[in-house]
C-alpha cells in the first residue's frame, strides 16, 4: 500500500464448476473444454420456450460436500430463483441461481500467510448455471453455448481479507479444498474456477465499509493478486487526494496492461428482478443425507498441511505444496508409508519430482516413477548404498525417463556409494598429495581450501564416495 495510514478490505466471490458429467438442469455433457462450438446443447440449455429444467442431483450432492468442507450450515430447504438480464451469452434471458435461500450459509476457510493462520468467513454457497461464451470478432460476435447451463457453485466470502497475498492464499486454499472433496476440478486453465474481487480502502482504525470496486472475472491466481494490488494502490491514491470513490463500480482487468478499467456502475439485486423459479421444486436436504456425506469427507488440505508440518517436520512451503492437490498428497502419503522418511520424501516429491513433471508438462498421474520405487530410492540413500547426489541425479533421472527400478539402475551402472574406510583413506591421502597449495592455504586458516579438497575427492569418485566419511577422514588427516 502507498502508505500505512490505510487498510484494504477485500472480499471474494468464487465461481467453481461442479464436477458432474452433465449440466445443471439438462442431460448435455459438461465437458466443454476445446470442443467444437455448440455441440453440447439442447432445447433446455438453449432456452427454447416450453422446456422444463430438471435439477442435477449429483450437483446438489457435491455442493453439499463442498459446503461441509467449508464448515457451512447446509440449509434443509433452499430454492432456485430467476436472475433476469439480457445478454447474448444467456439464451434464456435469465440465469437460474439461488437468491434469498441459498444451499448453505456461514462457513469459514483457514488460510496461512507468512506463517500466520487466519479464518476467512464464508457468507454463503449457492448453486446456479453458467452462461455461454462470446468471442468478439471484427464483423460481429461468435456465440458458443457449450458452457451454457453448466453446473456452478458460487462461494461468497465475508470481506475478511486485507492484502492481495491473503486473497491469493484464500483462493488457493479454496481450490485445494474443492479438489479434495471432489466438488470441482477447479482447473483455471479450463475456466473451471473464476474470481470476482471486491476491494475498498479505509483509514486504519476505521471499521466502516466504504464504496468498493468489484473486479470481474479474474481467471488465475496471478491476475487475482495483481489486480487487487493495483486496485489498492489506485484507491489509496484517491484517498490521499481527499476524494475517495463515492459509489460502487464494476471494473475489468487486463493482464497485458496491468491495470483495471471502468466497466459500469455496480448493479444491485433490484436490477435483476429476482423471482422464484416456477419450473423447479425446492431443494430439500435431510439431516441423514448430511450425516452420510460428513462421513465421506476425506482429510482436508488444511488438516493435511498441519499434519505434515507438526508430525512429519516438513517445511511450510513443502507442506502447502504437497497438500494443494489430492493426487499429489496421496502420492506423497504412499512414499512416506513405504520409506518411513517423511522429510526426504517431501524433498523428493515436492522438489525433484515436481521439477521434472513441470519441465515435461506432465501431471503426477502420468509419472512413471511409482511411489514404491521412490521409496526404495530413499531407503538406499538412508542405508548408505548410494549418495544423495547420485540418487537425486543419475538414478532419479533414469527412473523418471524409463520407470526403471532404482536397485537395477544402481547395479547396472555401478553407482554404489564407496563407504570402505581404507579405500577412502587412500583416496584422501592422494587428494592431499596432489593439492599441496590447498593444504598450505588450509593451514593459514582458509576454510574454503578444506571444501575444495572434499570436492576433489568427490570428483575423483564421480560423486560415489560417502561424503560424510570423506569429510571426517580429511578433517582428521589435516589436523596432523
Ligand atoms: Zn442442454
Ligand atoms: Mn454467480
Description:
- The protein has 480 residues and is an alpha+beta fold.
- Helix content is 40%, strand content 21%.
- The chain has helices at residues 57-69, 164-180, 221-240, 287-296, 301-310, 316-322, 326-339, 342-359, 371-382, 388-402, 406-413, 421-434, 436-443, 447-460, 467-479; strands at residues 6-17, 73-74, 77-78, 81-84, 94-97, 104-113, 116-129, 133-137, 140-144, 151-157, 193-203, 213-218, 249-254, 259-265, 275-276, 283-284.
- Strands 2-6-7-10-1-11-12-13-14 form a 9-stranded mixed sheet.
- Helix 2 packs antiparallel against helix 3, helix 6 (316-322) crosses helix 8 and helix 7 crosses helix 8 (342-359).
- The longest helix is centred in the middle third of the chain and has 20 residues, at 221-240.
- The protein is elongated, with a radius of gyration of 29 Å.
- 38% of the residues are buried.
- The model has no long low-confidence stretch (mean pLDDT 93).
- Residues 15, 128, 154 line the site of manganese (II) ion.
Amino acid at each position: 500500500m502507498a502508505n500505512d495510514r490505510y487498510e484494504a478490505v477485500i472480499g471474494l466471490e468464487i465461481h467453481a464448476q461442479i464436477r458432474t458429467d452433465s449440466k445443471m438442469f439438462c442431460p448435455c455433457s459438461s465437458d466443454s473444454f476445446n470442443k467444437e462450438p455448440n455441440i453440447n446443447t439442447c432445447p433446455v440449455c438453449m432456452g427454447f420456450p416450453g422446456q422444463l429444467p430438471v435439477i442435477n442431483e449429483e450437483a446438489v450432492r457435491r455442493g453439499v460436500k463442498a459446503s461441509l468442507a467449508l464448515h457451512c450450515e447446509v440449509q434443509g430447504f433452499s430454492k432456485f430463483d430467476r436472475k433476469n438480464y439480457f445478454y447474448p451469452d444467456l439464451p434464456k434471458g435469465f440465469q437460474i441461481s439461488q437468491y434469498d435461500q441459498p444451499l448453505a450459509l456461514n462457513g469459514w476457510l483457514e488460510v496461512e500467510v507468512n506463517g500466520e493462520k487466519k479464518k476467512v468467513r464464508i457468507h454463503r454457497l449457492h448453486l446456479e448455471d453458467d452462461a455461454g461464451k462470446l468471442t468478439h470478432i471484427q464483423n460481429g460476435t461468435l456465440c458458443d453455448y457449450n458452457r451454457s447451463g453448466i453446473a456452478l457453485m458460487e462461494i461468497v466470502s465475508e470481506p475478511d481479507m486485507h492484502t492481495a497475498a491473503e486473497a491469493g492464499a484464500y483462493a488457493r486454499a479454496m481450490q485445494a479444498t474443492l479438489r479434495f472433496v471432489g466438488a470441482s476440478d477447479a482447473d483455471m486453465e479450463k475456466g473451471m474456477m473464476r474470481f470476482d474481487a471486491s476491494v475498498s480502502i479505509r483509514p486504519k482504525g476505521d471499521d466502516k465499509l466504504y464504496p468498493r470496486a468489484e473486479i470481474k472475472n479474474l481467471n488465475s491466481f496471478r491476475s487475482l493478486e495483481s489486480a487487487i494490488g493495483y486496485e489498492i494502490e489506485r484507491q489509496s491514491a484517491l484517498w490521499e487526494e481527499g476524494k475517495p470513490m463515492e459509489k460502487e463500480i464494476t471494473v475489468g482487468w487486463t493482464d497485458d496492461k496491468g491495470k483495471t478499467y471502468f466497466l459500469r456502475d455496480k448493479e444491485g439485486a433490484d436490477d435483476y428482478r429476482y423471482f422464484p423459479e416456477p419450473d423447479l421444486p425446492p431443494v430439500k436436504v435431510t439431516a441423514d443425507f448430511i450425516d452420510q456425506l460428513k462421513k465421506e469427507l476425506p482429510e482436508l488440505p488444511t488438516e493435511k498441511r498441519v499434519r505434515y508440518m507438526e508430525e512429519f517436520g516438513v517445511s511450510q512451503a513443502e507442506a502447502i505444496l504437497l497438500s494443494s492437490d489430492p493426487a499429489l498428497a496421496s502420492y506423497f502419503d504412499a512414499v512416506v508409508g513405504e520409506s518411513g522418511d517423511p522429510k526426504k520424501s517431501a524433498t523428493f516429491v515436492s522438489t525433484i519430482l515436481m521439477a521434472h513433471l513441470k519441465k515435461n508438462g506432465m501431471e503426477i498421474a502420468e509419472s512413471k516413477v511409482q511411489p514404491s520405487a521412490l521409496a526404495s530410492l530413499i531407503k538406499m540413500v538412508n542405508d548408505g548404498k548410494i549418495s544423495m547426489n547420485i540418487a537425486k541425479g543419475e538414478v532419479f533421472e533414469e527412473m523418471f525417463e524409463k520407470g526403471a527400478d532404482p536397485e537395477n539402475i544402481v547395479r547396472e551402472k555401478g553407482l554404489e556409494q564407496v563407504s570402505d574406510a581404507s579405500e577412502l583413506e587412500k583416496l584422501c591421502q592422494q587428494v592431499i598429495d596432489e593439492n599441496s597449495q590447498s593444504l598450505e592455504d588450509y593451514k593459514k586458516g582458509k576454510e574454503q581450501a578444506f571444501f575444495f579438497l572434499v570436492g576433489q575427492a568427490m570428483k575423483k569418485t564421480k560423486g560415489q564416495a560417502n561424503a560424510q566419511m570423506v569429510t571426517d577422514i580429511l578433517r582428521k588427516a589435516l589436523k596432523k
